[in-house]
Design a protein that fits this description.
This protein is α/β, with parallel strands linked by helices and 226 residues long. It has seven helices and ten strands. It has a six-stranded mixed sheet. A hairpin with a 2-residue loop joins β9 and β10. Bound molecules: adenosine-5'-triphosphate (ATP). GO terms for molecular function: ATP binding.
C-alpha cells in the first residue's frame, strides 16, 4: 500500500548516553491507512515520543525509512521535509505550545498563512474550526485567558488548520483532569474522523485507547499489536 498516508519501514533510532548506546527503536514497522486512528500505548521511556518525532519528519532515523503519502522522506532536503510537515501533518502535544501573545484565532490562522493561504480564507477556516470545538465567542482571547481544556482545543484546531492527511499526537489530553480529558478527546476523535485524517495518538490511558480503531505498543524497539 504505497500510497498510505504514513508508513514506517524498519525504522531504527539510538541515542548516545553517558551509559553508552541506547537502542530505542530497532526496526519499527507501521502503516496508517487513510482515516485510520491508531493508539500508541507503551510504558514510559520505550520510545513513543521518539517514534512520533520520526513519523513527523522532525528527526531522521538512523536506519529504515518513513514514507508520507508513498514518498520516501529520507532522501529529501530539510526544506522539502518542512514543506511536507506543513501541508500533510498536524501535531498536538501534551502542552498546547500556543503562542501566548496571539489570540486563539491568530494561533489557528498563522500556520495557514505560512502555507500561503490568504488571510481572509485562513480567518474563515479558523473561525469554523474554533466554533466546531465550542469556542465561538472566544476567538479573540489570548491563551492565558482560556482554560486548559480550551487551550488544548485551540491546539487541536491549529493542528487541523491546514487540512493535514496525518495527525500525530503525544498525550494530547494528558495535562487535563479526567472529565475534561474525556470531553476534549471525544472532540478530537470526532474532528479527526469527520475530516478523514489518519492519526497516531500516544496515550497512557487505556480507556482513551479503546476508543480508537487499533492499539499498538512498543516492545524491544519494535511496534507490536497492543
Ligand atoms: N535526544 C536524546 N538523547 C538521549 N536520549 C534520549 C533522547 N531522546 C530520548 N532519549 C531516551 O530515549 C528513550 C525513549 O524516550 P521517549 O521520550 O521516546 O520515550 P516515551 O515512551 O515517549 O516516554 P514518556 O512516556 O515518558 O514520554 C528514553 O530512555 C529517553 O531518555
Amino acid at each position: 500500500m504505497s500510497d498510505a498516508p504514513l508508513r514506517l519501514e524498519a525504522v531504527a533510532r539510538r541515542f548516545r548516553t553517558e551509559a553508552g548506546e541506547l537502542p530505542v527503536l530497532t526496526g519499527a514497522e507501521l502503516t496508517l491507512a487513510a482515516g485510520e486512528i491508531v493508539a500508541l500505548v507503551a510504558p514510559s521511556g520505550t520510545g513513543k515520543s521518539t517514534l512520533l518525532h520520526l513519523a513527523g519528519l522532525l528527526e531522521r532515523p538512523d536506519a529504515g525509512e518513513v514514507f508520507v503519502a508513498g514518498r520516501a522522506a529520507g532522501t529529501l532536503s530539510d526544506d522539502a521535509r518542512t514543506a511536507i510537515r506543513r501541508t500533510e501533518i498536524g501535531f498536538v502535544y501534551q502542552f498546547h505550545h500556543l503562542l501566548p501573545e496571539f489570540t486563539a484565532e491568530e494561533n489557528v490562522v498563522l500556520p495557514q498563512m505560512a502555507n500561503r493561504t490568504p488571510r481572509a480564507a485562513a480567518q474563515e477556516r479558523a473561525r469554523q474550526l474554533l466554533a466546531s470545538f465550542g469556542l465561538a465567542g472566544r476567538e479573540h482571547h489570548r491563551p492565558g485567558r482560556l482554560s486548559g481544556g480550551e487551550q488544548q482545543r485551540v491546539a487541536i484546531a491549529r493542528a487541523l488548520a491546514n487540512a493535514p492527511k496525518i495527525l500525530l499526537a503525544d498525550e494530547p489530553t494528558g495535562n487535563l483532569d479526567t472529565g475534561t480529558s474525556d470531553l476534549v478527546f471525544g472532540e478530537l476523535l470526532a474532528a479527526v474522523r469527520g475530516q478523514g485524517v489518519a492519526a497516531l495518538i500516544a496515550t497512557h490511558n487505556p480507556a482513551l485507547a479503546a476508543r480508537m480503531d487499533r492499539v499498538v505498543t512498543l516492545r524491544d524497539g519494535c511496534i507490536v499489536p497492543g
